[in-house]
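note to self: dont lose this again. the chain is below, predicted strucutre after it. 520 aa total, dont forget to put it in the shared folder this time
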Amino acid sequence: MADFTLVDPKGWEYDLHSVYSAYIGYFQMYNVPWYERSWGHLFESFEEFLAFSWPVITVTDASSGRAHIVTRLNSIGAFIKMIKTRFGETLPQAPNILQISPFETASRHLRHVSDYSSYKKLHSTLPAVVLSALKTRVRSGEPKAIKNLWEKKDKTFLAIDFEWNERNEKTVLEWGYAAVRCGHLEALGHWPPVPDTNYRKGHYIVAEHVDKVINKYCPTYPWLFGESQVTPKAKLPQIIQAVISSLASPDSETAANHLVLVGHGIHGDLMRLEEMKIRIPHNILIVDTMTFERNLYANGFRGVMPDPKSDKARLSGSHLSLENLLYSLTLPLSPNSPSGQRQPSPQPPLVLPQCTLHNAGNDAFMSLFALQKLLDPRGTQVPTIVKKAKTNGSGFSNGNGGKFNTVNGIGMTAPVGTSVLNSSASMPMMTINGNNPAAYYSGFAVTAIVPSLSVPSSNTVGRPASTYDLADEFGQMQLSMPRANGGGAQQHLTSPPRSGLWDRRTTKRMNSFPTARADG
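---
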């Protein structure tokens, strides 16, 4: 096994161990006394069978995803020819040899196995081969591989999204995420996940760019599923790293990570993570909802739908932007499906909440919802928008029983009876040149991450309950606390107007479907 030669995997289709097994079965079926023949010692054990020095490679089966040590048909013919030359007997080719179709297309490392120890070493590398192929399958959007991940109910799906400056992609303005921990929900018997209560979510705004960097063609919009947090630019990588570390399992060369990264046109988001030097385990699986949906449509699982740019039927292999993907979920499936029996039964039209995209938190949340909806069309509930608390005109909300304080231009909610350090205190405070960091997000509650010191007081009122409770993430229902976002009629999804045709994310934003009407 010291030589190093690369070969094309095409034609390497026969599992080596199944060749030996097929011959033993052939001898049994046709009553061949192989143990009395001169060549019988070659079949006394699999180790003796390997003495022929078989040329092999490791590949995975395109249909099953299992890894195999395979050889070629002409190598089996060479083995039969060797028996005829050395022992003077003709051995037919055994039937029922396991034949696979290699998933890999790149050149593979050729090895020669002549003893059981070398075969055992090669066999120990098969889990790594499976992991490598699985990462490729999931990244390429293979429907079967991604559906298997969801149906196992043991993964954590983390959807992420960045919003960056149109003039400089390295200038990050926002970061948002949404995560669902399927293993915890399944253990408690709470399945399928409910987006409103079972998605962990967050939205962070870079303080240094508030009111300074505003995109012209694709401006950002407020977060609609919670309260945003303002954080210094230097702290954002730490926050992202902490979120990923809290959900990921240890790195491994032989097993997939429990964490699955999700995004719509995720290539740009991965570049931002790399620029921030965010450490991601190498065994993490990555799902691009754009690629996944394209393959679903190409294989006939989504029926026939109109093209977003014309009135004609959508072409196979075309991409959908996140806006178009969400809008396509509201359309009834056409019965004229080119895939015949693979076409699912028609679904009733779906009504989505009015959600404006081009916000990192909104995009991440709706990307995770879209993935779940594509995987479980019937069991996925529609999310609702969080009702914001009343603001005091500066974009910040007053807490229950609290009063609004401003320190160095930062709005904070402080309970009654507590004191907050002023600008002359020695504690470090986050300053944004005296500007209100929520001015651009006027009318929406934004929470600033600011170090503060509270003085104990006898009449201190407890901190108001958060709109997001971790208990709901584990499937526990809060019966005593009504949800703030439970009421209100829902409207069809509408795409925000665009002031130009140029788009800074060609992989994520495309022309939208015609706007749906709520009364249609």
